[in-house]
Sequence to fold (956 residues):
Amino acid sequence: MRRLPLAPLAAALLLAAGAASAADTTIPAAAVKTAEQLRDRALQDDTGYRIVASLTTEVGPRIAGGPADQRARDWAVAKFKELGFDKVYTEPVTYPLWQRRGEHGAIVAPFPQPLVLTALGYSAGTPRGGLAAEVVKFDSLDALKAADPARVKGKIVYIGYRMQRKKDGADYGMGSAVRTMGPPIAASKGAAGYLLRSAGTDPDSRTPHTGVTGFRDPAKAIPAAALSNPDADQLERVLAYGKPVTVKLDLDCGIVGQYTGANVIGEVTGRRHPDQVVAIGGHLDSWDPGTGAIDDGAGVAIAMAAAKLIRDLPQRPDRTIRVIAFANEEMGLWGGRAYAEKHAGEVAKFQLGTESDFGAGPVWRMSASVKPEARGAIAQIARVLEPIGVAYDARRPGGGGSDLSQMHAKGMAALTLTQDGTRYFDWHHNANDTLDKIDPKELAQNVAVYAAFSYMAAQADGDFGSAPGAFAGDGAED
Amino acid sequence: MRRLPLAPLAAALLLAAGAASAADTTIPAAAVKTAEQLRDRALQDDTGYRIVASLTTEVGPRIAGGPADQRARDWAVAKFKELGFDKVYTEPVTYPLWQRRGEHGAIVAPFPQPLVLTALGYSAGTPRGGLAAEVVKFDSLDALKAADPARVKGKIVYIGYRMQRKKDGADYGMGSAVRTMGPPIAASKGAAGYLLRSAGTDPDSRTPHTGVTGFRDPAKAIPAAALSNPDADQLERVLAYGKPVTVKLDLDCGIVGQYTGANVIGEVTGRRHPDQVVAIGGHLDSWDPGTGAIDDGAGVAIAMAAAKLIRDLPQRPDRTIRVIAFANEEMGLWGGRAYAEKHAGEVAKFQLGTESDFGAGPVWRMSASVKPEARGAIAQIARVLEPIGVAYDARRPGGGGSDLSQMHAKGMAALTLTQDGTRYFDWHHNANDTLDKIDPKELAQNVAVYAAFSYMAAQADGDFGSAPGAFAGDGAED
Ligand SMILES: [Zn+2]
Ligand SMILES: [Zn+2]
Ligand SMILES: [Zn+2]
Ligand SMILES: [Zn+2]
Fold:
């Protein structure tokens, strides 16, 4: 890790370039110094790791509305209090309750054998005893879109898109499209069921990746499931014999009603502007096969630990640090949408925000959607983060992360802090999302980033441009 | 891969050292040359890979006595015939039929959550609805042996031995001891159940490793299961809170009667001594979570492909090449023991033998148990194998591999051809034992080794010392 005494020099250059004016948002030198101390302290601190270990051990898997939902909320309330947050509260979030009760799959003919698969969120269940149908394979989502419904009707559609590991996770774009858009398209053409090669990058693990589908109307949903990568290989090998292949899906799952959970919120109250908030967080729900360590125990832990470090300073920050543990991100940003709906009217009070929801790999890139007059302050933040490996890309927008993208859409100034996601999709949404996948040192780097930026935003002279409708069309992807 | 023209030089040295005499077994120069050609041809040949792809795709998982047992035997008979073997037959093998019908586990208290586990071979089932009991952890098998039964009675014993990757798989010695010996010891002290950290080296995969236990009397068996490594980590974290930990095992499994399967045998008949055999093979059964690619589709494929290359020579070898696809190795060498019992009286007719049952990694070491007068012939074999990476260790015994260890125990001269097992125990006995774990080039190296040695043994002038009771106490481990 490099420690370059860049700040004074760069600030001088900035002034020399004539960029600073009275209207510009700036971060006072004392705040920069404190942020540097927070950053360095965070790197040596294990609070974040202890939080995610506590959540994944004591609560474990916590599918939205499932048996551990209330326990997860109780855990978050207790943890905020234990960490000394000034204010802890919940805000209700209501959503359809989808349940997974059992899932089996098998090749019936020509070579009978089990398949390891997992039902996708909002999948319909099969009739009791299962659903057997011939498989029709498509080479891509586009090929399915273009297909004559006569080829699809009554069949189980299969698409075998194979995701590759990328630092920025870019291949999840297509991977998740095959998972979300494929099922309703297949259903609209009369398919009996839908199977995909998991949207995951572990090439050889029999751990299928679940995730939500894009079914909008439960009445039109069909059974939809993901095969592990080796099971997809096997199905493709069997299909390559050129004989009709019959697969049986036996999925006991579906929507059983409504559920009301909650976003759980903890605050370190601002000393001078308690009503102005820096919003950070993660989502509290997880998928059920794993214990939700990287998705998104890590995000909750990073935000909680960062705020806790700020809370432990000799005095409270000027503005409030608000940590939000969102409800039910996984099945469609329910917590994030409820939050944005409730707080849209206060968007101008949101100084800056972003959520951590891409695992526990180190942050390597920062981008921002802020008003032009706040670019200098963002550059100040960037200079504090640069020594711990974060590069500032001034050309990219910032989107606020998964749930907070909804507040950004309402006009909240937002960062994107991109983590190294090279292995994220090995473990994402499958049974392997467990604590052992988190490197404590990498998690601490994230805490350092969140503590430093949150503090600097809270101490800034001026704002970052949050206003109703600001940043519309900035092209942010999250 | 190096190709050194060592053979003539080394043979000259051997003669110069005065080691050769009329009583010595030697391999004619023409046979050595043909063996070198077989070796080189095998490296370019994909017959072995096509065989294991066929078995794992068309039959898939094939637990002994299970739904695919008969299909596996039919497959082997048909494959031997398709490959042009001269003689194909089966020999019945009868054994207890143990079935796995369902398995679930969970921590009940203090932190309720599911555990990923798999029942072990010959495990008893739990009462319907499951068995919940407090967990008592022991640091080692020795600690369990020494334990006061009062500490164990009514509890679920847990041992967390963590296997490490080794090229020779040495850590499986303790890993398998914890799995086989632990359950009956726990049962004898009144334990209600038994759990272990999987005897496997994949540190972070939620795929528990099954395998047989040492229960001798089904009436005394208790429920016994393996946790995946991350689940063992989780249980240990929960135990570390220092509160009583209750686990529920719900295992629907057990012995339901007897089953008669068969060893399936294919021969390339010897031209001059059809009744003298070189015996090679693998086991046809697999554990059920995977498709038995590395354990032991690979072994069956290596032996079949090696014999097929010899069969395709312009004329048949002097002695018979016998390929044995053994029944039910996994639950206690049933096929190997039945074979040895049936053929003990003919042991002197077994020229040399060894079985492949350690995955598909390259062979890197050869050792032998042969009469002293055949050491020169073994050295000739070694010189043919040396260019493809096989080192001859003249101080180690040869054991014949898993099932054929039983014929070796009756007096059959035997090799051990040690494969690189560094990753073998990542996939061994779990769902990840699938075709993608096999590198076709590495498999071909194995075929080259088996083809070359089998042919040379078949063409030798003289024998390797097989006789009733020979090699007793040679210290061979397999
Ligand atoms: Zn997430
Ligand atoms: Zn997710
Ligand atoms: Zn084996
Ligand atoms: Zn085995």
Remarks:
- The interface with chain B takes residues 53, 57-61, 67-68, 107, 111-114, 116, 203-207, 229-230, 233-234, 237-238, 289-291, 431-432, 434-437 of chain A (CB under 8 Å).
- The CA atoms of residues 165 and 422 of chain A lie 5 Å apart.
- The longest strand of chain A covers residues 87-109.
- Residues A 283, 295-296, 329, 357, 402 surround zinc ion (ligand 1) (CB under 6 Å).
